[in-house]
Design goal:
This is Phosphoadenosine phosphosulphate reductase domain-containing protein. By secondary structure, this protein is of the alpha/beta class. It has 15 helices and ten strands. It has a domain at 4-84 and 178-267: 3-Layer(aba) Sandwich (Rossmann fold). Strand 2 (41-45), helix 2 and strand 3 form a beta-alpha-beta unit. The structure holds iron/sulfur cluster.
């Protein structure tokens, strides 16, 4: 028999919860034979930036799974992966920072037609020399960073044990929509680390993933089943068992098992992972800020810390910005990014971010006076 290990990834959201229910149903119907006679394993990645309500919800699912089948949800972290957020990674970063910050930095900001020439070079239509000869884009020059700022950054560059913050400090910036190292470094790599030993030993891995086609055009382009072969001959199969389901289907299977949903869904959040996600929607940002002031304080402090180890903000004496440029209209002089306080102010405006809307002001007053209203994107409160 081919050795195979099934894994379920648990995020605390409705879709991974639906997959958990499907896997439990399958075991109860067919026994472990349906999983190659090995109990499936359930993994959840904690990157230290999760909403506390989501962590509580995962603990609740873990209890349910334990009582129902005697299985547990394992927590993985970037801290488990050698070289990712450990002392060695920070030592490398300190050495690099001392070397680079003490020198002038020149960077060309390619724009407009020049970007098209670069695409033509990448496509092999012109040579690199032809592209650069036509380039008249501005060159940004950053002078060497003063010694006291270098020393301040070096003092801070030690592991905090919080993977999301440590990754941001190691990268010298927060993730962005284009460079989403939050997903790769604090979620995917730690999850894969748990599976890698099996794959290298020739055990195939089947990942049950809670992705649905109707979530986004990008998701819809994925395949319900994908497979990658490893040098050991083992396969890593990505299986999306609820690919054709609607959000209502995902909620329904949990209801059938008497499982409650992550309470964040009844607080106006459509996503329940990081607190808050770098791609948070305007309305959700407003809700998050109203409901979780302690989380806002934490993010503000992280922006201050990352600002000290980012070359540009260290020199300017400003904090870094958690939220990606594509998420909020930021400051054109700050790479289009906005700090959390500025982004929250913007989230309370309407009409292109210029005016405070009377309704929004009233919503804030109601929240302050009467507690917060139930407000679900999925109609759970109706
Ligand atoms: S939820 Fe958002 S911030 Fe968190 S890892 Fe995913 S993309 Fe990054």
């Amino acid at each position: 028999m081919i050795a195979v290990q099934h894994f379920g990834s648990i995020s605390g959201g409705k879709d991974s919860q639906a997959v958990l229910c499907r896997m439990v149903e399958r075991i109860e119907r067919k026994g472990l034979a349906a999983f190659g006679n090995r109990a499936p394993r359930f993994l959840s990645a904690d990157n230290g930036h999760e909403n506390p309500i989501t962590l509580d919800h995962i603990a609740y699912l873990d209890d349910w799974l334990g009582q129902r089948l005697g299985l547990r949800i394992e927590t993985v972290s970037a801290n488990d992966v050698p070289g990712l957020t450990d002392a060695a990674a920070f030592a490398r970063k300190r050495a690099m920072l001392r070397e680079e910050w003490s020198k002038e930095k020149r960077r060309t900001r390619h724009k407009g037609a020049c970007n098209r020439h670069r695409d033509a070079w990448r496509a092999g239509a012109i040579t690199k020399g032809e592209w650069l000869a036509a380039c008249e884009c501005p060159v940004m020059v950053s002078p060497p960073v003063p010694d006291h700022l270098i020393e301040r950054a070096l003092e801070l560059l030690h592991p905090t044990g919080i993977p999301f913050l440590d990754m941001a400090m190691l990268h010298g910036r927060f993730p962005s929509t284009k460079v989403r190292f939050c997903t790769s470094d604090t979620k995917l790599i730690p999850l894969m680390h748990r599976k890698r030993l099996l794959l290298d030993a020739g055990v195939s891995v089947i990942d049950w993933i809670g992705e649905r086609a109707d979530e986004s055009p990008a998701r819809a382009r994925k395949k319900p089943i994908q497979s990658v072969r490893y040098p050991s001959g083992a396969r890593n199969i990505l299986y999306r068992p609820i690919f054709r389901w609607s959000a209502a289907d995902a909620f329904a299977i949990s209801a059938r098992h008497g499982l409650r949903h992550n309470p964040l869904y009844t607080m106006g959040m459509s996503r329940v992972g990081c607190s808050t996600c770098i791609m948070v929607r305007k309305r959700e940002l407003r809700q998050w800020a109203m409901r979780f002031p302690a989380e806002v304080d934490r993010v503000r402090e992280w922006e201050r810390l990352v600002g000290i180890v980012s070359r540009r903000t260290a020199a300017l004496g400003t904090p870094a910005s958690l939220l990606a440029a594509a998420t909020v209209p930021g400051d054109p002089d700050d790479h289009g990014r906005a700090t959390i306080d500025r982004a929250i102010d913007w989230s309370r405006t309407s009409r292109g971010g210029r005016n405070y809307d009377l309704f929004l002001a009233q919503e804030q007053r109601d929240a302050d006076e009467d507690g917060l209203l139930c407000d679900s994107e999925y109609g759970l409160c109706e």
